[in-house]
Amino acid sequence: MNILTAENLNKSFHKNIALNNLSLEIPKQSIFGLLGPNGAGKSTFIRIVNQIIYADSGEIQINGEALAPKHIGTIGYLPEERGLYKKMKVGDQLLYLAQLKGLSKTDAKAKIKVWMERFGATDWLQKKVEDLSKGMQQKVQFVATVMHEPELIILDEPFSGFDPINANLIKDEILALREKGSTIIFSTHRMESVEELCDHIALINKSEKILDGEKTAIKEKYKSHIYRITYRGKALTPSNQFELLSNIEHVDGTSEAKVRLAENFTSNDLLELLLSQSVQIISFQEEIPSISDIFIKLVQGATAEKEVVA
Amino acid sequence: MSKIGLVIKREFEGRVKKKSFLLATILVPLLFPAVIGTMLYFALEEQKSAKEQVVYVLDEGNDFELESDRKYQFQNLDSDIEAAKLAFSESDAYALLYLPKLDLMNPGGMVLYTKKNPSLQASSYFENKVESQIRDKKLKASGISEEQLEELKTSISLPSVNISETGEEQASSAGVAYGIAYGFSFLVYMFVLIYGSQIMQGVIEEKSSKIVEIIVSSVKPFQLMLGKVIGVASVGLLQFAIWVVLIFVLSTAVFSIFGLNPAEMQAAQQSMTDVSSMNGSGNESVEALMNNSEVNEVMEIVYDIPYAYYISVFIFFFISGYLLYGALFAAVGSAVDNISDAQQFTLPITLPMIIGFLGTFMFVMPDPDGNVSFWLSIIPFTSPVAMMARVAFGVPAWELALSMILMVFGFLFTIWIAGRVYRIGILMHGTKVNYKTLLKWMRTNG
C-alpha cells in the first residue's frame, strides 16, 4: 500500500522545467530517501505535496485520494529554510502552528505537553524563541513538525545545523515515528544518513527521476562484482571466471587481491575456485557500492551524456 | 477557528501586547495637547514679555504720525538720510523707516532699512501702517472731516450659516471646517502609512526568520497575507478608538476646568433649536448665534459637527485606504530579504499618498469643490486623504458614493495584484528583485 503516489507531475517556472513527468510511489511506513543534486527539483516536488505550489499537470494521491486541502493536517513538513517567530513564546508558537494544522486548542495543548516532556523541555514554553540556544530551537522546530502526529512526515535536510547529539536524538525519533506508523520522506545530500535510515530511495536529476526502488535492490543492481580477498599463499592466477584487478603482497606473507567475477558466476563459485588454488583465505568480501557511489555515477553519467548530445 | 482567523488573532495579539503599542496609544492623546499647549503657553508668554523693538523713523515731510504699540516703538530722527543710516547701524534699533516728503497723489520712495531680512509679517505691518495714513490723508484732502473719517472705520464679523436642502440652518465656520479637514486627512495619511509599513515589516520578519514556508504549508499564502493585513488593521482601529475615547474624556475634563460643560452646551443648543422650530423660523438660532461670545460661537459649531458622519466616513477611508496600500506594502515585503532592500519599492507606493496629502493642502483646502479637488477625491490612490478633507466642507452624496465605490474596486485590485506577487515572493530567498521580476511573478500561474 502506498501512502503517496505521484503520476506524471509536470511543473515549470516560465521556461525552466522544474519537474518533468515525475512519477513516484512511496510505500506506507517506509523511510523514503529523495536524493538529487541542488536544483534537481526535489524542493519543487515537496512544495507541490505540501500544496504550497501547484503542479501544471499530473496527479498526487494520498492514501488513494486526490491531494486536497484536508490533507494538510496529515502532513508534517520541515523545510530546508526554516525558522520560528523570534519574539514569540515557544508555547504560543507551537499552539499557533498546531492550530493551523487543524488541531483544537485543547488537543494541541495536550500534544505540546507530551512532546516537550519527552525532550525534557517543558520549562522552555514560556521563553521567547530568541532566548533559546540553537540546539533548543531545532528541537522546538522538530516538535512543531511532528506534534500533530502526521501520517506523512517530510524532512528536507533535517540534520543540517544539528550537532551530532541532537542529530542522533532526531534520528531515534524518526525511527520511533516510523514504528508508530508514520511514513518519512527524507530529502538530503547526506549519503551516510540515507545509507543508515532509508529503505527506499528515488534519485532525481535535472527534473527527472533517474532511479527509484528499494535500497537493497538498487545496491544489488549497481554492484560491480568486485571482491576483496586477503589470503596467504602463492599469488592467485586469474582464469576465465575472474579477472585479477590488483594484487599486493605484504611483508608478513599475506596478500590482498581485488578481483572482478565474470557474469553468471556467484560468490560461491569464486570461493570454490580460490580454494582449489590452495591458498589460505583470511577474509573475503564483496565490494557493495555505496549510495554515494551510485549517486555520483548516475549524476555524472547523466551530465556526460548531455554533454555528448550537446 | 478558521485559519485566516488564527492568523488575524496572532497578528492582533502580538502587536497589542507590545509595550510600544501601549505607550503610543496612551501617550499620543496626552502628548499632542500637551505639546500644543506648551507651545501656545510659550508663545503667549513671549508676546507678553517681548521687549518692544525700536524703529527709527526719518519722516522728511513730517507727514506721518506713527503710534508706538506693544511691539514697535517709533522714534523720530531729525537728520538727513546718510546720518540716519549711520545712527541706525550703530544702534540696537530693529529698523529704519525712511519716509521722503510725501507727494499725496504719487506716493513713493519709502524704504525700510533693516539689519536682517525682515519677516513677511513685519514688512506688511509697516506697509499697512504707512498705507492707512496715506489713505486717511487722501480722504481728508478730498474734504472729509475728522468725524466722518472716524465714522468710516467699521469692523464687522461675518458669521456663516449653512442652509441645507430641507431648509435647516446650521452655524458653520470655515475655520472649524478647515481644522477638521486638516485633522481627518492627516489621520488617514498617518494611519495608512504607519500601519502599512508595519505590514511590510511583519512580512519581512516572517521571511527573514524563515518561518514562512512552515506557515504556508498549513495556510494558503493569500490567506496569510489577508490575515496579516486585517490583523494589523484591527490594531489600528483599536488604537483610533482608544484615542477618540481618551481625547473625549480629556477634552471634557479640560472644558470643565475652563467652565464650559459640553453636555450643558449641547442641551442649550438643543433647546435653542426646539424654540426655533416651534416658531417655525430659523431666526432665533441666528440671533442666538450672534449674541454668543466668539468662543461660545466656535464651541457651538464644534459641538454641532456631525461627528458620527465624519467618523464613519473616516473609518471607511481608513480601512479601504489601508487595505489598498497595505496590500502593496505586503507585496513589497514579500519580494525583498530585508528592510534596506525595500526602500526602492516603497517610494512608488508612498508617492501617490504624498501627492494626495500635498494636493489636499494645495487644492482641496483652498478650494474644496475645484476640479483638481474633485479628481483627487475620486481617484482611489489619493481619495482617502483628499475626500476626508472635502467631507469637512460638505460634499455631494453622489461624489462621496462614487469615491467610495472606486475605492472598493481599488483595494480589490491591489489585493489581487499583491497576492500574486506575495505567493511567489515569500518563497524566494536571495533573489535580486526588480520591477521586471515583479511583473513576471504577477503573470506566473499556480
Automatic annotation (TrEMBL), chain A:
Domain of life: Bacteria
Claim: Nucleotide-binding is one of the keywords in the record: yes
InterPro entries (UniProt xref): AAA+_ATPase, ABC_transporter-like_ATP-bd, ABC_transporter-like_CS, ABC_transporter_ATP-binding, DrrA1/2-like_C, P-loop_NTPase
GO molecular function annotation: ATP binding
Coiled coil residues, start to end: none
Alphabetic keyword roster: ATP-binding, Nodulation, Nucleotide-binding, Transport
Residue ranges occupied by any ABC transporter domain in the UniProt entry: 4-231
UniProt family annotation: Belongs to the ABC transporter superfamily.
Protein name per its UniProtKB record: ABC transporter ATP-binding protein
From TrEMBL, chain B:
Broad class of the protein's primary localization: membrane
Domain of life: Bacteria
Annotated compartments: Membrane
Presence of keyword Membrane: yes
Protein topology in the membrane: Multi-pass membrane protein
Keyword annotations of the record: Membrane, Transmembrane, Transmembrane helix
Regions that span the bilayer: 21-44, 176-195, 229-258, 307-333, 345-366, 372-393, 400-419
Domain ABC-2 type transporter transmembrane: 19-418
Record-linked InterPro entries: ABC2_TM
Protein name, as recorded: ABC transporter permease
Organism: Marivirga lumbricoides
Lineage: Bacteria, Pseudomonadati, Bacteroidota, Cytophagia, Cytophagales
Gene that specifies this protein: natB
